[in-house]
Amino acid sequence: MQTTIYKVIDQDVWAAAQSAGEFTGAAIDIQDGFIHFSSADQVVETVTKHFARQDNLLLLSVSTADMGDDLKWEKSRNDDLFPHLFRPLNVAEVTAEEPLPLNEDGSHRFPTRFRAL
């Protein structure tokens, strides 16, 4: 089953991953041993909790179609199941990149489809 999951990433880190052909993880991903993602219902809270007031961010839409058993949905915040990838992310699995600019109040401006969630 194909699903879309989301990764919030610094634009410069993503540029380096694109050059390399894969993303091996941010510091927290490497520390935890997997790449953290969020579902559509979780991504706004994830950004608010972990990326408050950070500029230069992108929201990556990622297809799970070819992840197989490397993608696991595990309990995390509020006992919700979060997608965790136990291998590098191939840049070809990213289906869209969208900026997450800061509003004047320091919150992030999400694409319209997330504002209704």
Named at the architecture level, the CATH assignment is Alpha-Beta Barrel
Query: Count the helices. How many?
Result: 4
CATH superfamily: Protein of unknown function DUF952
Task: Briefly note the CATH topology name.
Answer: ADP-ribosylation fold
Quick structural gist:
This protein has 117 residues and is of the alpha+beta class. It has helices at 11-20, 27-32, 43-50, 112-115; strands at residues 4-10, 22-23, 35-36, 57-63, 71-75, 81-85, 89-90, 94-99.
What do you see in this structure?
With 117 residues, the protein is of the alpha+beta class. The protein has one domain: Protein of unknown function DUF952 (ADP-ribosylation fold, Alpha-Beta Barrel). Helix content is 24%, strand content 31%. The strands form three sheets. It has a three-stranded antiparallel sheet. A hairpin with a 5-residue loop joins strand 5 and strand 6. It is globular and about 40 Å long.
Q: How is the secondary structure organized here?
A:
Layout: E1 4-10, H1 11-20, E2 22-23, H2 27-32, E3 35-36, H3 43-50, E4 57-63, E5 71-75, E6 81-85, E7 89-90, E8 94-99, H4 112-115
Antiparallel strand pairs: 1-4, 2-7, 3-6, 4-8, 5-6
Q: What attributes does this structure have?
A:
about 120 residues, three-stranded antiparallel beta sheet, single chain, alpha+beta, 4 helices
